[in-house]
Amino acid sequence: MVGQPPGFGTAEPLDDGPEGRGGTGATPGTPEAAAVSASFKRFADVVPLMMWRSDENGHAIHHNECWLEFTGRPLEEELGLGWRSGLHPEDFERHAKVVAAAFQAQQPFTVEFRLRRHDGEYRWLLDTARPLMEDGRFQGYLGSCFDITDRKHAEEHIEHALAEKEALLAEVYHRVRNNLQVMVSLIGLYGRAAPDACRGSFEALGQRVRAIALVQQHLHEAPHIASIDLKDYLHRLASGLGQLRRAGRISVQVGGSGNGLVEPRIANALGMIVAEIVAECLDATAEHVACSITIDMEAAGNEPLRLGIVSGVSEMAASGRPNVPKLGPRLIAAYAAQAEIAVQGDASPADPLRLTLPTSGQVAQ
């Protein structure tokens, strides 16, 4: 009874609707009904699940005792196309299409639909059927049904919970973004009012807050918030950072043979570290200088995921911004500690910044 439970007949018109009884097909005492052997009936009636059998035209020629107990109807009312009177009206057309296609191809089929139980409640059934062949001749279908109502309700509950979670995350992100924008504006106002010697620091602070907002944006836009594709995330973040300040003069390349899925806290910390390295490079170089940063990801078997980051800042450092404090190493160490990321090096070509992710932060693929 799949797609269209056993009663769907390809030789019968379907315009009589789900309540139609036209073409009732086999009834007790007819040759069609006699085609179901007594031994098959005995077997089917002791099987503890709903079973049905149809002829080559899709007419039901048997429903077992478990089926009849479920519907509360006598066998003669279920034979032929009669069983369809219990099919949920919203599932009738979809079910009919699935079964019709299966009958035409004489292939197995599976379909979910609602059937009215003896107490009037519609229950979800998973119907699975296989074609019966004898000497190469198609004899109809044999199918079985499982009640999956509890599973369907659980799926609906999960979908509803996920929708609520997505709405909550969107609201939180919206508020965080607005607050960060307010912070950037306030920093700008105070910077313009501050003495000349302090303006560089205010500008650097404002750029870091913008970078924080960008990190949060790309986390929010990740296809799967619970497991972030790290390489994709870093590629998107690098592109955004390259346009955030000194557009066209920032190059962030992400490469290596490694990849992996990480928890949001790990992705957030790595995003903040990368943003800080970019900011450090910009703070230490003149406006006309191009900053180049490379990120290599390494993963081998069950080993922790490692990242190597090299900044070209040491090769082109300028002394034009003496009033901007160099807080990069302290900030990077703080971000890494929050996510239990091991840190070594200073991101120079001679001593690349090496980050080793905790295995607890990696998500199984």
Explain what you see:
By secondary structure, the chain is α+β, with helices and mostly antiparallel strands. 43% of the residues lie in helices and 21% in strands. The chain contains ten helices and 13 strands. It has helices spanning 31-34, 38-46, 65-71, 75-78, 89-105, 149-193, 196-220, 230-244, 264-283, 328-338; strands at residues 50-54, 60-63, 109-116, 122-134, 137-147, 228-229, 250-256, 261-262, 291-298, 306-311, 342-344, 353-356, 362-363. The longest helix has 45 residues, at 149-193. It starts with 30 loop residues before the first helix and ends with a strand.
Q: What's the topology here?
A:
Blueprint: H1 31-34, H2 38-46, E1 50-54, E2 60-63, H3 65-71, H4 75-78, H5 89-105, E3 109-116, E4 122-134, E5 137-147, H6 149-193, H7 196-220, E6 228-229, H8 230-244, E7 250-256, E8 261-262, H9 264-283, E9 291-298, E10 306-311, H10 328-338, E11 342-344, E12 353-356, E13 362-363
Parallel strand pairs: 7-9
Antiparallel strand pairs: 1-2, 1-5, 3-4, 4-5, 6-8, 8-13, 9-10, 10-12, 11-12
Helix pairs in contact: 6-7, 7-8, 7-9, 8-9, 9-10
Arrangement of strands in the largest sheet: 2-1-5-4-3
What's the helical proportion of residues? 40-55%
The share of residues in extended strands comes to: 15-25%
Q: Please work out how many helical segments DSSP would assign.
A: 10
Q: The biggest beta sheet, please?
A: 5 strands, antiparallel
Through-space gap between termini: 37 Å
| Mean of residue pLDDT values | 82
Rg from alpha-carbon coordinates: 33 Å
Q: What is the element string, with H for helices and E for strands?
A: HHEEHHHEEEHHEHEEHEEHEEE
Ranges where pLDDT stays below 50 over 5 or more residues in a row are 1-34
Shape: elongated
Q: How many individual β-strands?
A: 13
- Pairing-aware structural class of the strands and helices? alpha+beta
